[in-house]
Amino acid sequence: EPDWARGIRCGASSRPQPPMSVPSATKGGELFVPYRAVGLVSAGLPVAVVQHGGETFVTASLGRTFQIYNCAKLRQVFVGPSLPAGITALGAHDDYTLVACGTAVVVYKRAELVATLEGEHTAPVRHLLAMGSSVVSVDATGLLVAWQLPSGEVAGRLHPGFAASALCHPATYLNKVLLGAPDGRMQLWNLRSSKRVHEFEHGWRAAVTAFEQSPALDVVGVGLADGRLLLHNLKFDTTLLELRHTHGDAVRCLAFRTDGQPWLVSGAASGALHVWHLERRARLSLEPCAHEGGVASCHFLRGRPELLTAGAADNSLRMWSSDLHSGELSALRGRAGHAAPPTLVRFHDDELHVGGGPGGQTHLLSAGGDRTLRRSSIWSAQQDCELSQGRETKRRSMHETSVRERRLPPVLALASSQRRERDWANVVTCHAGSPVAYSWDTTTKALAPHTLAARPAAPITAVAISACGNFAFLGSAIGAIDKYNLQSGKPRAAAAAEERHEGAVRGLAAAADGRTLFSCGGDGTLRLWAPAALKLQSTADVGCACGMLRHKRDSTLVALAADDLSVRVMDAVALRLVRRLEGHTNTLTDVAWGADARWVLSSALDCTLRVVDVPSGALIGWYSFEYAATSITVSPGGEFLCTAHVDSQAICVWASRPLFEEVLIGAVTDTRPTPLQLPTAMGGDGGDESEDEEGDGEEEEEEEGEDED
C-alpha cells in the first residue's frame, strides 16, 4: 500500500501528502462519518422529571435520542443511545427512563436496555405515565395499556372511546387514571378491572390539554384549550376555582408549588407563564415571553420555589426563581440552542494561530433564523452560550413585543480571529439590510462597544478580519470596501470610487502576510487590494457573477462560488483559472477548503456535498443528505467537518476518516451520491456522555442582556 493512502491518527506531527494523480475507480468508503450533533437541548416534547434523594433530574427528547440534566445547574449528565425512529413521549421512574418510539416503549437504565414494551399498540404512542412499578402508555387511537416494570408484562388494557389528550394519576387513587378528551370529557378509569369508575358531569366544551395533581388530595388542576384552568375536586365532582388566560391563550401545562405557598403556574401556547395566587383567586404576575413558540412543560422542584420550564419550539430549558411577595419570575439559569435552523456556522480558530490547544478543541460560531449568534463546543455542552445583544434589544424593547423582533436582523456573514481575543473585539458580523456591521467580544460574550458603518451608507454584504486581528474590512451592496480599526472602531481607509466593484461585494478575505485583500462581486471580477490604503492592485475576470469567496491563508488559491452553479478555483498570484468544478444542480449554499488546501468542499440546495481534490481535479467524495446543507466549515486541523441543515436546529459534526483510520482515497465513479445519515447527540460511542468530571467551563447561560452593563 502506498504511503499516501495510509491513514494517520489525530494529533500526528505531520500529514502524508497524496500524489498529484488520484487512482480511478478506487474507493475506501466515506471520507466523513457522523460524530455528533451539537446545540440540541430539547426537541419540544414535555420533559420527564424524577427525584433521586436531594437531586432532581430532567430528561429531554432530542429527536432520536434523549439526554438527562441535573437541575442543580442544568448540567448534562447523560446522553442516551440512538433510537430507530423519533421519540414521541417520555417518562421517568426511579432509575428507569421510559421512551416512546413509534408503537413501542423502550425502557433504559442509563445506557442499558432493560425492556422493549411492544406488541400491543398499532399506532404511535402519544403519552406515557409512570405509576409506581408500572407504566401506562396511550397511543393515537386511544388504546391504553398498563405494563409492569421491569418485566414488561401487560397488567391491563382498555379503550375509553376517545384518544386521550391528557392523563394523570390522582394521588392515593390506587390503580386509577384520569383521562381528558379532545371534546372536553373527563373520565376516571380502573386499570386493573379495565372499567370506567366515573364520568364527570361537567362538560368543559373545550379540549382538555393538561392535568396536574395539586398538593391537596382529591383536587387536580385542569387546563383547557380555550385558555381556562380549573381546580376540580374529584371526590365531589365540583369545580372549586376557575381562572382564565387572556385572549383565549390555550393552556399547555400546569405546576403547583409544594413549599407551602398557594401558587399555581400555567404555561401557555403563546410562550407566556402565568403565576396565580389560589387564595386570592388572582394572577400575581405574567412572564409574556418565557419561551418562543409555546411552553411544553413546567415543574416546580419539590419543596423549593424554583420552576423548571421547557419550550415547545425554541430548543431550550430554563430555571426560574420566584419572588415571594410579588410573584415575579426571574431567570436563574438556562440551556438553549438555536430556536430556528442555523444558517451560518464557522470554526472560531485562527488557521495560523501559534500556541493553541490540542487539534480540534475549538469552538463554533453559528447564526440562524432566530437572529442569535451562539458559540458552541464540540466536546462540552456546558460551554455553549449565546452572545448577548442586550444593548441593542433594550433600544427596541419599547416598540417591539416579540423577543425575536427585538434582536438584530439575521446574520449574513461573519469573520472571527483569536489573535487579539483578550484585548478587544474579535468577531464582526453583517446583517440583512443593515448598513452597519457589529463587532463582538467572545471574552465578555456580548456585543462590543463599536459599530462599523459603511461609507457611503449601504447594506453591508461581506466582512473579513486581518490576520493580525487589528482590522476589519467591510464590503457593501454598492461595491464599496471600508477598513476599520477594531480597537478604536475608527475608519482607517476606503476604496476609491472609481476602483469599486460595479455590483455588490459578495466575498472578502485577507491573506496571511497582511499584504493582500481579496474581494469578489456580482460584477464577475476578482480583485486584489493593498490593505494598508485599500489601493487596487489587480483585477481578474471570473467570467460569471460570484456569490462567495473562500481563501485558505496558507495558500495562494481562492475558491469562488459562481452563479452558474460551478466553483472556480483561481490562482491569486498568476490571476488565472486553476479549476472549474461543476456538478451541482441547484444553488450553491457554501464552499470550504480542506485543512491542507488540497480539497474543496461545496454544498448546494440539491442536498449534496461534493469533495474535489484540486491538484488532480478528481471528485473524491459525493454525498447526499436528507436535508440540504446551508453552511459547511472544516476545522483548522482537518479533524472535523461541521454542517448546518434546513429544518434542523442542530450543528452536525462529522469526523474525517483519513485522519483517524486507513482510507484509500479514490475518484468517485458512482452515478448516484452516497447517502449520509445525520448524526445524533449520542456522541461517538452512543453511550454515557457524562460531564460531571469536566471543569465548569463557561457559566450557565444567563438571560439575554444580564451579562452586559
- DSSP strand tally: 57
Beta-strand portion reads over 45%
- Side-by-side strand order of the widest sheet: 50-51-52-53-57
Radius of gyration: 28 Å
- The secondary-structure class comes to mainly beta
Q: Name the overall outline.
A: elongated
The number of helical elements comes to 2
Major sheet description: 5 strands, mixed
- The average pLDDT score comes to 88
- Give the distance, in angstroms, between the N- and C-terminal Cα atoms: 61 Å
The helical percent reads under 10%
Q: Name the poorly predicted regions.
A: 1-28, 352-360, 684-709
Note down, in words, how this protein is organized.
- The protein is mainly beta.
- Helices cover about 0% and strands about 45% of the residues.
- The chain is built from 2 helices and 57 strands.
- The strands form 14 sheets. The chain has a 5-stranded mixed sheet with strand order 50-51-52-53-57, with no helix packed on it. The chain has a 4-stranded antiparallel sheet with strand order 1-56-55-54, with no helix packed on it.
- A hairpin with a 4-residue loop joins strand 39 and strand 40 (about 480-485).
